[in-house]
Amino acid sequence: MGRELDNRLGWRQILGMARLAQRPDRYLHSPRLLTAAHGGAHLYLIAWEPQADPSGLEHLLEVDIAADGTLGAERTCASYAQIVALTRGDCVEVSEDPHAELRELRAGEQIRIEHADGISSVWLSRIGKPECLVWRARGAAAAPALLPTAKGTWVAFHHDVREDTQTSDVSKWLALRFVDSSAQVFEPLAAMTERDRDRQGVEQSFEFPALVAGEHGAVALFGRGSHNYFRQDLNERGFAARVALSDGEWGSRGRHLVAVALKSGILIARRERQGIDVDLLPPVEGEAPALIPAIVDLTIERKFACENVVDRARDPARRHGHLTLFGDIQQHSAHSDGVGRADEAYLRARYRYADDFVALTDHESFLGKRTGPGEWEYLQRIAEHHNAPHAFATLYAYEWTGKAFPGPGHKCVYFPVRGVPIVSRDDVPEGGALVKRVRELGGFASPHHIGWTGADEAGHDDLGQPLWEICSCHGCYEHVDHPLGQRGSLREHMADAALRRGLRFGFTGSSDSHGLLWHHGEARKRDPYRTGLTAVQATACTREALMEALVKRRCYATSGAKILLDLTADGAPMGSELGYGTHAKLEINALGTSNIRSIELVTEVGVVARTEPDAREATLHAHVGGQFVYARVTQDDGEMAWSSPVFFGPAQR
């Protein structure tokens, strides 16, 4: 913008860009822009200063932007214990509703997204007229934006439904619709250039749209990819190529880019890794694009069936009065360095995969991101909204991101109840202290991708850290040179080595997905969300029952398939500690998703019993023991499962 800026605000110039810089003691996020009567704009954002303000207040700030791009002084509009959400549209207000971002209101018109039973519907309402259905499909839609014009209304949103098969997939992309004055719904005649739901590499998806109109009918479309913000213009010639607005480096950017039209150009604001960046871009040029009628309701044309439902009648855990429940308890969204809105993690787990439970574990402090009290409350409220006892359970969780080995590595943290404050790596940087503090708060921690960033054996506590993740999109860390592959080379950090040294923990599997196909080339599967699952033998499908079973290690890991597995030692379930002797009578029952190649019992000396059934269902009986023992199931298709170990003798805590 080529002007001297107020240094008191922390602004600095970078090639015509203004930045409200991030500082270790001041975290800024959630920008909003409104046009101003003086021809400029008002920038609103949330500021949190955890060190300077012991009360932990969050502040809604406003900065004036003049018509020529000059930025004025900031002022505090209001302060709150937590700011859960800001509204979107013609006004900026603090909202207690975490779903405020599923609505946008402009010029008396409202766009909103509704989720019900795995179907997403996009609705447009106008004053005095019936609500108009813009799009409906089986899948997840989010982030609606609208742009009223003299001839009708542009509507944009992102969704995960493929244009070719109309089925839900991993990648998300923006959709653009136009609703005329008679409520007829159209879409651009021209195909969107660069839309590729099979794109590989680190830059995938296009989501969280913003819209700006040109003087003669063209439209500028803005959105967020997995590593960049982009602009893509649409006019009478069709869609232009996307233009990257960020540096493309891995980081924890914000979700929404916001944009308004000024006489001098298009003013945009977004949170990059280094702070809130503001740019003045050229206006969009050209005439209005050609349109064709759009297919509005995709659920009419196609029947859908989920192939991931478990046969409960054949669940071997029923013999003990338990249910085997499956879920992914580590994954990421655009609230850190992944993609998508928080809602989408729950919708995807329940309706695409028919999972029984899920946890969203976004990094609380990582790559330029901090989770303040308002965002943590937001994430908890979203989890609570999707919790449906006895049908689908959600866990309260986040990722504590310590330094890689020789640092403490990464751990996920799980709490049984809402309202427990985050224990931040910025306040508690040592792994053992984190585990101790989380245990005092009633939760537990769990390390993951241990052979890549480290297992933090020194920080282990059998009670405060009862579970280790051994399988994810990064590979399997059961032992070195695993057939499922593994990222990293920390050979002494594998699970079997730690067990031999006397540590006690159960096994979990999770995807650790960030929403990228093949996890940008690191995963063994195209769908990263199916690279690891946790199976829990619980008394009910509730958060309380799941947490109770996880703490007791009554759970097991799979490589992503819903393999049913049960192990008992002298009648005690997996994860038990048998304080007597060194041997027990073991019974293992398994029901595979394909033929089972082998069931093995593993102790500190290796495999001590094995059967090769070549059948979907198999049982193994053995009288074995030692320091510990666990079961490993391998299917013909390469999918695997690992029971949590049973331990012999007194614990050495």
Question: What would you say about this model in short?
Answer:
The protein has 653 residues and is mainly beta.
Topology:
Blueprint: E1 11-14, E2 17-21, E3 27-35, E4 41-48, E5 58-65, E6 71-80, E7 85-86, E8 94-95, E9 103-106, E10 109-116, E11 119-126, E12 132-138, E13 141-148, E14 152-161, E15 168-180, E16 185-188, E17 207-213, E18 219-224, E19 229-235, E20 238-239, E21 243-244, E22 258-262, E23 265-272, E24 275-281, E25 291-293, E26 323-328, H1 342-352, E27 357-359, E28 365-366, E29 369-370, H2 373-386, E30 393-401, E31 410-415, H3 431-440, E32 444-447, H4 450-453, E33 467-472, E34 475-476, H5 495-500, E35 506-509, E36 533-538, H6 543-551, E37 555-558, E38 564-569, E39 572-573, E40 577-578, E41 583-603, E42 606-611, E43 615-625, E44 628-635, E45 640-643, E46 646-648
Parallel strand pairs: 26-27, 27-30, 33-35, 40-46
Antiparallel strand pairs: 1-2, 2-24, 3-4, 4-5, 5-6, 7-8, 9-10, 10-11, 11-12, 13-14, 14-15, 15-16, 16-25, 17-18, 18-19, 19-20, 19-21, 22-23, 23-24, 26-36, 28-29, 30-31, 31-32, 33-34, 36-37, 37-45, 38-39, 38-41, 41-42, 41-43, 41-44, 44-45, 44-46
